[in-house]
Amino acid sequence: MPKGVTREGFTRWRCLALPGVLLALLPSLVQAQAGGPPGGWSVGAAAVVSGKPYGDADYDVIPVPFFGYEGERVFWRGLAAGWRGPSGDRVQTAALVRANMQSFDGSDDRLLEGMDSRRRTAEGGVQVSGGPPWLRLQASVYQELLGRHDGQVLELQASVPVPVGDWVVIPSIGGDWQSADMTAYYYGVEEGEQDASIGRSAYSPGAAFNRTVGVGLRYRGHDRMGVIVQVRREFFDGTLRDSPIVEGGGRWSGVVGVSWQL
């Protein structure tokens, strides 16, 4: 078992920060290789590795099956679904709803004992992407929909696809701005959750901007099968690093997945 990976992580289906944005890519791999929608139905499976920002720095490994659909306008990509708007030569727009799987229970770590659980939620927003063939730029903004925290997130990313034989290597950089409502829910400590015995005082982080870097591999050597490997590192804003329930300056996440077009 890899160092830092919990044994329980191999068998349970919950995680603290499931990288849903990576899972959303998997069912559309074959469609992307073909050059554009529609791609029809796809099935697939993935193994997701997700780092925990709370307490000891360990990981969860979660197996995830999924279905996907790529139509002319409508798409469903595992944890995300939406409508693709009219597109220009180099600019694409979409409105979508996605799952945000970040959560924790008070039993997850000593630093969280006595705290209320933070629950998974859904987010709705718009996405704009485009650029020349050698550079992909993407901007997304989301609003939380279920009243867990009523916060917002703005995501920015730039990636450069580099063909290498039957594979495409895709390094990327970006940033995620999270509103104060969102960070208070996932990284804050309310007045009634203080615990002096473990040094947990009330804390409200405020809005944060986290930087991200990543690299992906996409297989393009088969008409129906898509394969992706992705690793991502998130560097926390200082206001999150200062939270009494956060240890470390960020977290790693990754996914290995296979999709098959029906």
From N to C, what is the helix and strand string?
Answer: HHEEEEEEEEEEHEEHE
CATH topology: Lipocalin
Shape: globular
Quaternary form: single chain
Secondary-structure-derived class: mainly beta
Count structural domains: 1
Strand order of the largest sheet: 1-2-3-4-5-6-7-8-10-11-12-13
Unreliable segments (pLDDT under 50, ≥5 consecutive)? 1-19, 28-36
Radius of gyration: 19 Å
Say how many strands there are: 13
| Percent of residues in helices | under 10%
Main location: membrane
Family: Belongs to the MipA/OmpV family.
Keywords: Cell outer membrane, Membrane, Signal
Signal peptide: 1-32
Task: Provide tags for this entry.
262 residues; mainly beta; Lipocalin; 12-stranded antiparallel β-barrel; 4 helices; globular; disordered N terminus; Outer membrane protein; signal
Overall description:
About 35% of the residues are buried. Strands 1-2-3-4-5-6-7-8-10-11-12-13 form a twelve-stranded antiparallel beta barrel. The chain has one domain: Lipocalin (Beta Barrel). It starts with 19 loop residues before the first helix and ends with a strand. The longest helix has 8 residues, at about 180-185. The protein is mainly β. Residues about 1-20 and about 30-35 have low confidence and may be disordered. Helices cover about 10% and strands about 45% of the residues. The chain is built from four helices and 13 strands. A hairpin with a 2-residue loop joins strand 3 (about 75) and strand 4.
Q: How is this structure best summarized?
A:
This protein is mainly beta and 262 residues long. It has four helices and 13 strands. A twelve-stranded antiparallel barrel has the order 1-2-3-4-5-6-7-8-10-11-12-13.
